[in-house]
């Protein structure tokens, strides 16, 4: 396989940018994701790819849930900050003084995002350097109006 | 769950538009997809959601492969035409007189797309009204330069 062609064509794939959160027994995690997609209307299902080293991964597994918050177009800086790993950034909820709303399931969602969907994990798959979760949307809330932040507009190549 | 909130937040997810092809024993299928994402760098893995009624689905299963061709920004009309089901559109390769290049694996790729990646299926999952394939990129080729077509720019809500 031609590695340049592989890289070039895969970079032509279009993505949005999302804050993904999870919580379990008082511990909270949040990171910036772009590798996710809806995969079914009925029931509403999503796949999400999470790096194996993610500190939020054990929280998703323990709680069986995660929350997807599409960033608004003006949140580029926050999307970058939430992309830093916890071992360097610390507890991002605290250090970034994140405004949070609580979902009905008791999970944290970003108050300044466009909205959120709470997803209940149905299955997970090993996928190379990552774990892929298949999850059902069980709760949704609109938080603000506006356009979503895209990878292209943010100038990011990969968020996580 | 609030159905309006569910619909509104899920529509804030950002997608590209892709021609997906598959072939088996002389039969060829092609459709327009937007529910797909890379999920791993090493090895390079992709997930693709395919509707259960898709006429290309049996070709993907029989061959164990599919080809993803990101549409160029100017291919909105073609993306719409390839989104029509085969039982109404007939053999879209013939009726649309599609210019095709053959991959090293012998599969058809759209000659006027930005490029293509050939994906070998590693696993499939039941996902509500769709089937989700996890597949490894085994071949890639750049065909032209330009920006990719996005769902938002095309004004589409869902392609398949």
What does this structure look like?
2 copies of one chain form a homodimer. Chain A has 6 helices and 9 strands; from the N terminus they run H-E-E-E-E-H-E-H-H-H-E-E-E-E-H. Chain A has 160 residues and is α+β, with helices and mostly antiparallel strands. Chain A has a single domain (15-152), classed as Electron Transport, Fmn-binding Protein, Chain A (Pnp Oxidase, Chain A). In chain A, strand 8 and strand 9 (130-142) form a beta hairpin.
Largest sheet of chain A, order of strands side by side? Answer: 2-1-5-8-9-4-3
Number of helices of chain A: 6
Most extensive protein-chain contact, per-chain counts: A-B, 52 and 52 residues
- What is the annotated CATH architecture of chain A? Roll
Q: Helix and strand succession of chain A?
A: HEEEEHEHHHEEEEH
Alpha-carbon Rg of chain A, integer = 15 Å
State the secondary-structure class of chain A: alpha+beta
- How would you classify the quaternary structure? homodimer
CATH superfamily of chain A: Electron Transport, Fmn-binding Protein, Chain A
- How much is the average pLDDT of chain A? 95
Q: In the CATH scheme, what's the topology name of chain A?
A: Pnp Oxidase, Chain A
Task: Please bin the fraction of helical residues of chain A.
Answer: 10-25%
Largest sheet of chain A: 7 strands, antiparallel
Number of domains of chain A: 1
């Amino acid at each position: 396989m031609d590695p340049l062609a592989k890289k070039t064509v895969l970079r032509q794939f279009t993505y949005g940018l999302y804050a993904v959160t999870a919580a379990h027994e008082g511990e909270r995690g949040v990171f910036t994701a772009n590798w996710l997609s809806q995969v079914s209307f009925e029931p509403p299902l999503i796949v999400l790819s999470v790096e194996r080293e993610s500190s939020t991964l054990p929280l998703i597994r323990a709680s069986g849930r995660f929350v997807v918050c599409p960033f608004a177009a003006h949140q580029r800086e926050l999307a970058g900050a939430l992309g830093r790993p916890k071992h360097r950034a610390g507890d991002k909820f605290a250090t970034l003084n994140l405004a949070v709303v609580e979902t009905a399931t008791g999970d944290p969602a970003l108050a300044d995002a466009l909205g959120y969907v709470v997803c209940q994990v149905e299955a997970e798959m090993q996928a190379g350097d990552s774990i892929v979760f298949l999850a059902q949307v069980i709760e949704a809330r609109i938080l603000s109006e506006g356009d979503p932040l895209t990878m292209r507009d943010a100038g990011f190549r990969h968020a996580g």
